[in-house]
């Protein structure tokens, strides 16, 4: 496939791996965070870590949209379906995220009277809007999640719903912002000392998110925190090349925002999409993330002009935080402090078939990526 | 849900829509978020929407960089 296969060439990958090994200073350690779950997936699937020298370590970041969605937000959607008889439409990965009371959206679905309420998987926000148009007697709520990539499509359907005067459609908005999460990673987590902060030498910046927001929003990482960022495409060679570029920056004592994904990302990003998002959404004062806690100005809410299509306003919903399963380490993994294999439940009680935490649900989640691609072989065999 | 690959635009349809090819599979997507897409262009698609056009010249330049990284020993070390 054009623009895919060339970026997965094994021989070139070994060449870049050799260049990293040659240029990495054996006297020091390098720790880079790949922010985005898509990169976590690529790194695990293609065995990128096996091509890196031992002193270059990759740390998984919080850029997996399903992973950072806290239990309380899934509970909100489940309550809407069970108590208010609405039909929830959402992206497939959301359905299996564990919620309160041993439920998930998928398990809650079995309990619903399908004539009135339902829980459905959609491929795109437009599918949810189309369902509401097709079945006017059905109250449809699109559970919108994701970073800056899924936000413009949600903005489009909200604008269409308003233009159509569609009364049986609304959006439960959980769109979150990448720069805010990076800022949280660079600050010590709430309640922890400075020691708890992960030591990072730089970031592999997101691919798709950056096609929308451009490279400019990362400037603060270099300017205020003196860490390099290299925006990378999703293919394994993109990730390898960006690691090489990070190693070079560290060696030179530079902290710059560089772009490896020039074939799709510009400094300004997609201005049309940005304007649309701005028209429909505004910053939330505060939003709770799984793992990162409540962060100011880190998520979007629907503007008052669109309140009739805002499920939170329409149904008078309030958010109540709910703690994660007490043994689940998703929080520390999302902050880069622990690795999947550090969790007691990993690969035993928690597998992709029976996820206990959100990081085991989506293929972009750190735990699922490790589990699916055999990276769990490095766990010592524990006595049963 | 963030995983995606570049798709080639095969046909422009009404209402800002297009038919694209993804490794031999045809699919209908929305072009509402990008301007100036023509048949034969490659676009980065996410949840059914093209997010950006793929710059084919930049893609070639990046591939050239990969080859160079593997071949040329770093001069700083010399
Ligand atoms: S293995 Fe399961 S329970 Fe443990 S951190 Fe990962 S998702 Fe949570």
TrEMBL record, chain A:
Signal peptide: none annotated. It comes from Azoarcus indigens. It comes from the Bacteria. PANTHER family: HYDROGENASE MATURATION FACTOR HYPD, HYDROGENASE PROTEIN ASSEMBLY PROTEIN HYPD. NCBIfam families: hypD. The lineage of its organism: Bacteria, Pseudomonadati, Pseudomonadota, Betaproteobacteria, Rhodocyclales. Keywords: Iron, Metal-binding. Belongs to the HypD family. This is Hydrogenase maturation factor.
Automatic annotation (TrEMBL), chain B:
It comes from the Bacteria. SUPFAM superfamilies: HupF/HypC-like. One of its GO terms (biological process) is protein maturation. GO terms for molecular function: carbon dioxide binding; iron ion binding. Gene3D superfamilies: 2.30.30.140. Coiled coil: none annotated. Belongs to the HupF/HypC family. This is Hydrogenase expression/formation protein HypC.
């Amino acid at each position: 496939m054009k623009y895919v296969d060339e970026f997965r060439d094994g021989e070139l990958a070994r060449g870049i791996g050799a260049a990293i090994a040659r240029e990495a200073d054996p006297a020091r350690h390098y720790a880079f965070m790949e922010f985005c779950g898509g990169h976590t997936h690529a790194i695990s699937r293609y065995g990128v870590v096996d091509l890196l020298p031992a002193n270059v370590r990759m740390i998984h970041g919080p850029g997996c949209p399903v992973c950072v969605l806290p239990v309380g937000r899934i509970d909100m959607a489940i309550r809407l379906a069970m108590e208010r008889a609405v039909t929830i439409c959402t992206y497939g990965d959301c359905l299996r995220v564990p919620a309160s009371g041993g439920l998930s959206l998928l398990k809650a679905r079995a309990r619903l009277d399908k004539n009135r309420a339902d829980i459905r998987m959609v491929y795109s926000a437009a599918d949810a809007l189309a369902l509401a148009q097709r079945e006017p007697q059905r109250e449809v709520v699109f559970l919108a999640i994701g970073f800056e990539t899924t936000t413009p499509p949600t903005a489009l359907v909200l604008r269409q719903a308003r233009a159509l005067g569609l009364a049986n459609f609304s959006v439960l908005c959980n769109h979150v912002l990448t720069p805010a999460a990076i800022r949280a990673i660079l600050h010590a987590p709430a309640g922890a000392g400075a020691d708890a902060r992960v030591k990072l030498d730089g970031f592999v910046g997101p691919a798709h998110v950056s096609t929308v927001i451009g490279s400019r929003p990362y400037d603060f990482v270099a300017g205020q925190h003196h860490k390099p960022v290299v925006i990378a495409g999703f293919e394994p060679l993109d990730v390898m090349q960006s690691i090489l570029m990070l190693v070079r920056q560290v060696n030179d004592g530079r902290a710059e925002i560089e772009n490896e994904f020039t074939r799709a990302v510009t400094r300004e990003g997609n201005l049309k999409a940005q304007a649309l998002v701005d028209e429909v959404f505004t910053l939330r004062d505060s939003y709770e993330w799984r793992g990162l806690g409540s962060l100011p100005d880190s998520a979007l809410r629907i503007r008052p002009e669109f309140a009739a299509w805002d499920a939170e306003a329409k149904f008078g919903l309030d958010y109540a935080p709910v703690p994660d399963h007490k043994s689940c380490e998703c929080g520390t993994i999302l902050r880069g402090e622990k690795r999947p294999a550090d969790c007691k439940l990993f690969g035993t009680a928690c597998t992709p078939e029976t996820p206990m935490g959100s990081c085991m649900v989506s293929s972009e989640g750190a735990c699922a990526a490790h589990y699916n691609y055999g990276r769990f072989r490095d766990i010592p065999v524990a006595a049963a | 849900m963030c995983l995606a690959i570049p798709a080639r635009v095969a046909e422009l349809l009404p209402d800002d829509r297009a038919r694209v090819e993804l490794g031999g599979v045809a699919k209908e997507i929305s072009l509402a978020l990008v301007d100036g897409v023509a048949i034969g262009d490659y676009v980065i698609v996410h949840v059914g929407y093209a997010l950006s056009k793929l710059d084919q010249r930049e893609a070639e330049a990046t591939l050239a960089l990969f080859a160079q990284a593997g071949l040329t020993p770093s001069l700083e070390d010399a």
